[in-house]
Amino acid sequence: MYEMVKFILVGAVAVMGLFMAVCPQKAVKAEEKENEKSLASMRKKGIMLAVLAVVCGVVFAISQFMI
Predict the structure, then answer these.
(1) pLDDT 10s digit of each residue in the chain, 67 long?
(2) What is the largest CA-CA distance in the chain?
(3) HEC string of the chain?
(4) Inter-residue long-range contacts of 58-67, CB under 8 Å, 24+ positions, other chains counted
(5) What is the pTM of this model?
(6) What residues contact 54, with CB distance under 8 A and at least 6 apart?
């Protein structure tokens, strides 16, 4: 059961990264919604977060099932 907690948390982080990448207007502060630089920065951060979460999930899966 405790092994599944890692995968659930990694999945939640990946979903959060996808949300940041797809809807950056809703992920930034209210005063920064008009600024294109902050929206582009949030989109890049969301993509990086989603990719890193997938990589962590793969590493966890390999370490879980190879041992």
Answers:
(1) 787 898 899 999 999 999 999 998 888 888 888 888 988 999 999 999 999 999 999 999 898 888 6
(2) 50
(3) CHHHHHHHHHHHHHHHHHHHHHCHHHHCCHHHCCCHHHHHHHHHHHHHHHHHHHHHHHHHHHHHHHC
(4) 60/6, 60/7, 60/10, 61/7, 64/3
(5) 0.83
(6) 14
